[in-house]
Amino acid sequence: MTRIEPELIRRWLNGWTVARSLPEAEPAESAGDGLRSKCDQPGREVEVFALRADEDPESLERLAASVAAAQQITWLTVPTLRPRAVEAVVSAAGLELLHRSEWFMTTDLTEHPQHAPAAPYESEVRTEGAVTVVSVHGPSGEIAARGTIAVIGPDAIADRIETDPAHRRRGLGRAMMSTLAAAAVARGARTGLLIASAEGRRLYSSLGWHHEADVLIARRPAVPSNR
């Protein structure tokens, strides 16, 4: 494989916006180059996702230029199999790299390994609409780990997988991912999609998730405010 399929990125983004209760992503300024999502977060008002960075480097150049000129604080997220080439393009546009080592990953959820949390931890599963939230509670009722998965047709997009530092190295991440996968399969999903951090990818790889592409994230450098 020499590139990541644009449709795979679209499928992930469709679920990611649902998981985060965001508006549906819209085409970026240059039709076909990418998609634009309104995040409305401090330091991350808009995020643009490149669709064809590997097959058409000029499309990435156009997106990078539009992000560099944006009035709102805008991130550019680029799934790629050519991270060095992408890094050169975004740097030439005057953008700074925020993350270099995230991974786009997929898995067959019907074959996902199952792990239950060890006592005294217990899992709580809540589903509302397309979104399921799993919380793993500690002995005092505190939330020790938490994660979300959105089911869109045959796809399930996992997001915001977190374990509290005080409860790490106890298998809670594995247990939570197992519960999320089982909940998604029960609702008809087969393919799992996610973007993993450098820390998270070790967990997901151990559970059979596969690397599809690197993910680079860039934005225009912050301008120091005048005092």
Keywords:
single chain; 227 residues; alpha+beta; 11-stranded mixed β-sheet; 11 strands
Would you spell out the secondary-structure blueprint of this structure?
Layout: H1 6-19, E1 26-27, E2 34-41, E3 44-50, H2 57-69, E4 74-80, H3 83-92, E5 96-108, E6 122-128, E7 131-137, E8 143-152, E9 155-163, H4 172-186, E10 191-196, H5 200-206, E11 210-219
Parallel strand pairs: 3-4, 9-10
Antiparallel strand pairs: 1-2, 2-3, 4-11, 5-10, 5-11, 6-7, 7-8, 8-9
Can you write the helix and strand succession as a string? Answer: HEEEHEHEEEEEHEHE
Mean pLDDT: 93
Q: What is the CA–CA distance across the termini?
A: 51 Å
**Broad structural category:** alpha+beta
Report the sheet with the most strands, covering strand number, pairing sense and barrel closure: 11 strands, mixed
Quick one: overall form?
elongated
